[in-house]
Amino acid sequence: MYEARRALASPARTPRMAVVIGRLLGVAFVVCFGTGLYSHFLQEPLPWMRFPTRPALLYQVSQGTHIVAGIACFPLLLAKLYIVFPDLFQHPPVRSFLHLLERASIALFVGASLVQITIGLLNTYQWYPWPFPFRQVHYALGWVLVGLLVLHIGIKLPIIARFWSARGGAEPGAADATDVTDGADVTDAADAEAVRLWGSRRPSGVTGRLLAYIDATPPARSTVSRRGFLTTVGIASAAAVGLTAGQTFAPLDALNVFGPRKKGVGQQGVPVNRTAEMARVTASATAAGWALTLANGGVERSFSRAELEAMPQTEVELPIACVEGWSQLAVWRGVRLMDLADLVGADADASFRLTSLEQRGSFRQTEMGPEYVREPLTLVALELNGETLDLQHGYPARMIAPGRPGVLQTKWLSRIEAITA
Ligand code: HEM
Ligand SMILES: Nc1nc2c(c(=O)[nH]1)N[C@H]1C(S)=C(S)[C@@H](COP(=O)(O)O)O[C@H]1N2
Ligand SMILES: [Mo]
Hints:
The chain has 14 helices and ten strands. With 421 residues, the protein is α+β, with helices and mostly antiparallel strands. A hairpin with a 2-residue loop joins strand 7 (379-384) and strand 8 (387-388). Residues 270-274, 279, 320, 322, 356, 358, 361, 363, 393-394, 406-407, 409-412 line the site of ligand MTE.
């Protein structure tokens, strides 16, 4: 076992490097969890929850950050696994019950992390090759991962504290001692350290002395240097992030080669996720008799598109910000929702339910809290970027409100009703 570990030795495989990469990975996980929770509760709010409607770009930024930090997890997690790889083969594999628990928590942590980032990434490409519902599983795994992260930090706290700063391992006798891979000066104290930190040590006796001699000689073929390793991880992370972040952050748009959507590509310069054909609304959305029904208790009023056009119009600049991370700023024009709410005498604190012409599909009906209903930027949009709303973008009328995920920006509206508790 010791020989195997030695064969895997590399200057990049040190506790210090594990801490350096681990810190970045930890930050990325926490950022993903925080922004993920925000996205979750926007879509499934607890009854008392209210959300900020400004800045209007809030969700675009938070979900864009989720995807960017999520994508950065790929190179970082691979780097981390590379660093601790020899440590995954400890001998004996299980030393005690506590050790078994520690090993099991690591196995679960690694496995769950890989599943989480993989299904997340595939989801952004709208590829669902698994038989379980993505959101529920991704949400549950988020909690599992945060729990395991806390446990992991707790267990590794001595190493983390010791190697937190660059000078940490460099105290006399400590640096080489803890660095199982560095060869030179491996003493018995060093072995003890190696066991404590990495859980493996040299055998005793003649073999041990022989290995000590080999240890003292630098490895024949030089493996990855620390600097080389960090540079590689840095370039990989920058590439993964830089080549996709443009789907959210406009200045990077030119570099967006891997993101599933491009800014400006689609009808009226805005990408389309689900088309009218997919939603099977082509006939109903273009029917001459279309009308939008506003309801509040027993009060109901219907408006044709011409009647909506005759009402006071407002122009706003708001993004479509998809849960999958892409977003697109656009100019919308239409009737303020609060004006329509007043026409049916809705209470100021009433929530609304929006229903699409779509007959099936998870976005057929959505709900909206009073903070969005009473927000002057919230429109029943009739125009997009200076033209009549394209059928693909929700003609005859669609919802557009600030700070909400794209899934809640209901297209092909048919009915808007106050929810009476
Ligand atoms: C440790 C890493 C991650 C954590 C802790 C995490 C956590 C979460 C959470 C809690 C949600 C909310 C789920 C819900 O609405 O119920 C979420 C949503 C989402 N995450 Fe992650 N995530 C991680 C990594 C990733 C990665 C790597 C990607 C893609 C590159 C990704 C893509 C998504 C997407 C697309 C959603 C929106 C789902 C939807 O509303 O339909 N996540 N994430
Ligand atoms: N009725 C209905 N509205 C919908 C959807 C849908 O499938 N059906 N898709 C939503 C999603 S996921 C997004 S991101 C936005 C995209 O709006 P766009 O196609 O105008 O860009 O519409 C939302 N509104
Ligand atoms: Mo979306």
